[in-house]
Sequence to fold (86 residues):
Amino acid sequence: IEQGADGNTTVIDAGSRQLVVTYPDELLGEAVTKMLRNDIGRLPVVSRDDPRRLLGYLGRASVMAARLRRLEEEHVREHGLSFNAT
Fold:
């Protein structure tokens, strides 16, 4: 981040005013596409009824965890075995 002439760049100056968000009912693939197109690692999850109401965040780690759970479920359906067997 480039600093101003006086070295006192504010958060508002460094940040973006075009906030990219996702919604609780949005498909995960659509949210991931937003993350990739905008080169961001986390998306705020906001209410469709009140976009100012922050519900949480969706990050890359959460996306990967959801994908892993889905792969495990598919594996169990196809092979009848769980990855989590102890």
Observations:
- The chain has one domain: 11-79.
- The mean pLDDT is 87.
- Residues 11 and 49 are 28 Å apart (CA to CA).
- Residues 11-79 form a domain with the CBS-domain fold (CATH 3.10.580.10).
